[in-house]
Amino acid sequence: MIQKDSLERWTIDHSADLYGIRNWGTGYFDINPKGDVIITPHKDQKSSISLPDIIAGIKDRGLEMPVLLRISNILDRQICLLHDCFDQAIKNFGYTGKFKGVYPIKVNQQQQVVEEITKFGDQFDHGLEAGSKAELLAAISFMTNPNACLICNGYKDEEYVDLGLSALKLGLKCFLVIEMPSELELILERAKIIGVRPRIGIRIKLATRAGGHWTESGGDNSIFGLNISQVTEAVDQLKKHGMLDCLQLLHYHLGSQIPNIRDIRNAVVEACQVYAGLVGEGAPMGYLNTGGGLAVDYDGSHANFINSRNYTLDEYCADIIETVMETMDSKEIPHPNIITESGRATVAYYSVLLFNILDFSTKTPMPIPAELPADTSEKIINMLEVHDSLSLKNIQECYNDATFYRDDIREMFKHGEISLRERALAETIFWHIIQKINEEIPKLKHVPKEFNGIESALADIYYGNFSVFQSVPDSWAIDQIFPVMPIHRLHEAPDRRAIIADITCDCDGKIDKFIDPHSMRSTLPVHHLKDGEEYYMGVFLVGAYQETLGDLHNLLGDTNVVTIRINEEGDYEFTRELEGDSVADVLTYVEYNPKSMIQRVRATAERAVRQGLITAQERTTVMKAYEAGLRGYTYFER
Ligand SMILES: *Cc1c(COP(=O)(O)O)cnc(C)c1O
Fold it and tell me: What are the helix and strand counts (H, E) for the chain?
């Protein structure tokens, strides 16, 4: 179905272009000459590992697909990059403040993520951001570096405030950021009781708003933070208590995945004025926290588009440093330390969802019989004429006629005027016409609107062994686009087009929007399935936000998780394997008790024995199967 110059041999470079892997893969993901997707977490290509090799290793260890693969080196590299880029900008501009990165736990709360970031990030004094008590408790348990920042955002009750103040007493650089005016009173009161001078930050609502999915965090109507008059009230309150010296940090968060660098710059400009104002009021300050928002280029287009960004990491860092420096210099204020709370950009690249294709269904119609039965209805003969006469010139007319006859035939069928076989024949001819039209579409100068859906209507459905709701919830909930592609056979030309359906019984359980260098595709080029051979696909860049937002739709549970570390020589080790939920696990989540379930089924089986429906031996077999089912993986097992 895919056109290609038949003289030209398909190469892995064609696949690389087609799937955009060298654009969104940013060097971490590419294709090797064998046609396999490879991961290269280090600068040196020698250390590449192919995904099919990793899958073989996963299978050897007895784990089934789907598997969430985490590559811990990628996490390390991303932290390194962020610090390198900021440090370079600081050096280039002669900025006198420091860069202090913190990782917002909510973006991926998994223990191994937080552990890896604090361990590896130690050399950069990389800290953590917590947005709730649970996140703060997790953060405190991993933070040891007194120079790394611990930022406490989110709404705070007494317990939260006390925890933050204790962290400070323990020697951690812990800031309590005021999100609501009433929190200040509470902090001052608790600090007095506990006997510690708090480090206080204020989160502000900026007037600046950004484009993108998650912009509600910014702007006047943002639910978070203080508006400017509330900021001045807070300053007055601090002055009244003789605590203004505790005000050290200004924070804002414009929203996540900000595609346009101009919005980022505008926000910094506005925040700098507030910062300068607070210094003018007599607060010591010292820290400017610009929040998250650093975007991931999911589609690799490098454009001002919700799934992309129109800037590089270098530009992001340079713009922030330069903008802050200009404002501060003009007011003769010392350069603040810059904190960013980059979550998405830090963890997105680190996880890949791997799954196998279980089956497919195709719209490719049966051949039209060479001879139609003698009593074939007039309407069907007319339709066949449309098929035979179709050309580029009369394409629109043929389309109209074909749909007209099809609808007519369906009506006749409803009234019992034509048979089941005749209707089947009509549908076959109709789809042949649509297929012919689809082949002509690329030759048209102007494509009529009604042809837009043809490509996806003709696409195959590839059934993937995963759940969109569990593993890529944002794909369903907010139409976010993740790169999806086969992870092998990339030296072969993909000869089918498909949408990907998952194994939930939900019509929303599918992926039918795919990245394209120019806009978006409604189908994905894939290879035909081979008998007795698995076809593996990957959803990439799923490390941010997907894991804990995922749910148990259709009781498909957590997938198996495998973590690998690849060393510079290109060896790798499985550093962690986590078995996904068993059926009994997910049933327990929704308050079933597997033990009593077994008891009840046993009673039913015993009744069946008594009634002579099954033998006692058969009862044993039934019970064994039932119990094995409870222990099994919630996904399709081969
Ligand atoms: C969610 C959030 C972040 C993370 O944003 P990213 O765009 O993922 O980097 C940072 N700060 C705050 C306050 C947040 O709520």
Answer: 22, 23
Residue 528: per-residue pLDDT: 97
Residue 412: how many other CB atoms lie within 10 Å? 17
Q: What are phi and psi of 4, to 5 degrees?
A: -160, 150
**Cα-to-centroid distance, 119 and ligand 1 (Å):** 21
Per the structure block, which two tokens stand in for 363?
A: 């719209």
**Gap from CA of 107 to ligand 1 centroid (Å):** 7
Summarised one tens digit per residue, pLDDT across range 375-396 is 889 999 999 999 999 999 999 9
Find out whether 208 and 221 touch, Cβ atoms under 8 Å.
no
Which of 256, 260, 263 has the most ligand 1 atoms within 8 A of CB, as the residue to mutate? 256
Three-state secondary structure call for residue 260:
coil
Q: CA separation (Å) from 103 to 116, 129, 301, 356, 475?
A: 11, 6, 26, 33, 24
CB of 82 within 8 A of CB of 345? yes
Token pair 């280090």: residue: 42
**What is the DSSP pairing of strand 560-566 with strand 572-578?**
antiparallel
User: Each residue of 575-587: pLDDT tens digit?
Assistant: 999 999 999 999 9
**What are the pocket residues of ligand 1 if the criterion is a CB atom closer than 6 Å to any ligand atom?**
104, 106-107, 129, 131, 153, 253, 256-257, 291-294, 341-344
Q: Which positions of the chain have pLDDT values less than 50?
A: 1
Taking the centre of ligand 1 as the mean of its atom positions, its distance from the CA of residue 629, in whole angstroms, is 40
Handedness of CA 468, 474, 480, 481 (dihedral sign): negative
DSSP 3-state of 161: helix
Ligand 1 site-directed mutation target among 341, 474, 542, most atoms within 8 Å of CB:
341
At 215 the pLDDT is 61
The CA distance from 155 to 139, in Å, is 17
Ligand 1 pocket: which of 78, 105, 253 to mutate (most atoms <8 Å of CB)?
A: 253
**What is the C-alpha R_g of the chain?**
30
Q: What is the pLDDT of residue 201?
A: 98
pLDDT value, residue 1: 45
Instruction: Please name the residue whose Cα sits nearest to atom 2 of ligand 1.
Output: 292
Measured over the CA atoms of residue 464, residue 466, residue 470 and residue 471, the dihedral's sign is negative
Q: Using omega within 30 degrees of 0 as the cis cutoff, is the peptide bond preceding 367 cis? A: no
The ligand 1 atom nearest the CA atom of 251: 13
Measured in angstroms, how far is the CA atom of residue 340 from the centroid of ligand 1? 9
Contacts 24+ apart (CB under 8 A), 326-333: 327/269, 327/272, 327/273, 327/275, 327/276, 328/272, 328/276, 331/276, 331/279, 333/275, 333/276, 333/279
CA angle 412, 417, 421 (to 5 degrees): 90
Q: What pLDDT was estimated at residue 518? A: 74
Given this model, what pLDDT does residue 524 score?
Answer: 97
Shortest-distance atom of ligand 1 to CA 203: 13
CA of 122 to the centre of ligand 1 (A): 21
- Ligand 1 center–CA 510 separation, angstroms: 28
Cα dihedral 117/118/119/122 (nearest 10): 110
